[in-house]
Amino acid sequence: MGYSVKDLIYKGEKAGVHNWQTLEGASFYWHQDWLHIAEDMTGYSATANIDTDSEKATQNEAAQTIVNHLNKNDK
Fold this sequence. Notes:
The protein is of the alpha+beta class. Helix content is about 20%, strand content about 30%. It has one helix at about 60-75, and strands at about 10-15, 15-20, 25-30, 35-40, 45-50. The strands form two sheets. It has a three-stranded antiparallel sheet, covered by helices on one side. Strands 4-5 form a two-stranded antiparallel sheet. The longest helix has 15 residues, at about 60-75.
């Protein structure tokens, strides 16, 4: 069936780092200076790179990257 952006729970932003969780409890983080999403708040453990045409990714692109990552790993 797969994930969609509606399946992510946005937990807010702290010190510029945005956090989403899945219903299963997995957390993903993103900062506007990162061109990746991470599984830790520091961003050092990159999970997936964000596909963007600009120098900085948007919050929507970060959320879509999380969904793509989840669907890729769900197979």
